[in-house]
Amino acid sequence: MHLEYTVVEGDFVNAGTASSSVKKTLKQLNVAPPVIKRVVVALYEAEVNAIAHAYGGTVSVDIDAQKIRMVVADRGPGIPNIALAMQEGYSTARPEVRDMGFGAGMGLPNMQKNVDKLNVSSEVGVGTTVEMEVNFC
Amino acid sequence: MTLREITTLLHGHVCTGEAYLDEEVSTAFASDLMSDVLTLNDTPLLITGLCNMQTIRTCDMACLSHVVIVRNKTPNEEMLELAADNDMVVITTEFSMFRTCGLLFQSGIKPLY
Ligand SMILES: Nc1ncnc2c1ncn2[C@@H]1O[C@H](COP(=O)(O)OP(=O)(O)OP(=O)(O)O)[C@@H](O)[C@H]1O
Ligand SMILES: [Mg+2]
Question: Which ligand is nearest to the Cα of residue B54, counting in written order?
Fold first, then answer.
């Protein structure tokens, strides 16, 4: 199954639409609730990042019997030092983002903790791509 | 403690989820940082000062269904619709975060950590 979503620039109110929809789909597919939670927490963090730190982008999701693969690709400033960004507590979030309840520097470490495979690639001035996989068993 | 008792204790207002007020709460977690809430493995009552769409979304993702919003902030229609869709209980109180936590702690609600 293939699903695609658009993450709209600056649209905080709708941040999480893709994650909500994926949650519903996985429920219908009878995936175990703890696995669903890991998937949607990681995807939600990535979705919020694409709005908080970039100018929106796309989410594409592929689901088969064994696993879910999610790719969040944004247009944005990119991440100059990925190792630094992955550290817990590191954040460059603007005040507007902090007002929304984000900017603790915990998103990327949260993704790492919840998924079985994480790959972050980024080109400064172009954008960032976050690829994640979660196995169903 | 039931959500009904919690509402009374906090002089609260139930914004949505009247039908679930007899559900029991034994633990609570207080935070305004949604990424912090997203690290929880448990499903406590959430006490927060953050009142926007991300409060409700975060609860949806983290499988939390009970929220107390402090300092008299009023959730908008859109938030309450999403909360109702997810069978959540949203209670508001004019008490501060500190007072809310203190009252609940005193009544035997346990912290997660
Ligand atoms: N898609 C992105 N584009 C550009 N920079 C990013 C992106 N994602 C993360 N970053 C950078 O990495 C930092 C750490 O990201 P992370 O998600 O861990 O924390 P945060 O978003 O700042 O706060 P939190 O996720 O706890 O709300 C960000 O502050 C930002 O500097
Ligand atoms: Mg983040």
Answer: 1
Q: In Å, how far are A42, A73, A92, B11 from B67, measured between CA atoms?
A: 22, 32, 29, 15
Domains assigned to chain B: 3-111 (3.40.1390.20)
- The residue ranges of every structural domain in chain A are 2-135
> For chain A, which residues score pLDDT lower than 50?
none
CATH 2.40.50.140 is the classification of domain A2-135: no
Distance between CA B59 and CA B66 in Å, rounded? 8
Q: Which ranges of chain B have pLDDT less than 70? A: none
The ipTM is: 0.92
B49: closest CA of chain A, how far (Å) = 10
Average pLDDT score, chain A = 96
Chain B residues at the A interface, defined by Cβ less than 8 Å, are: 32-36, 38-39, 48, 50, 52-55, 57-58, 60-63, 78
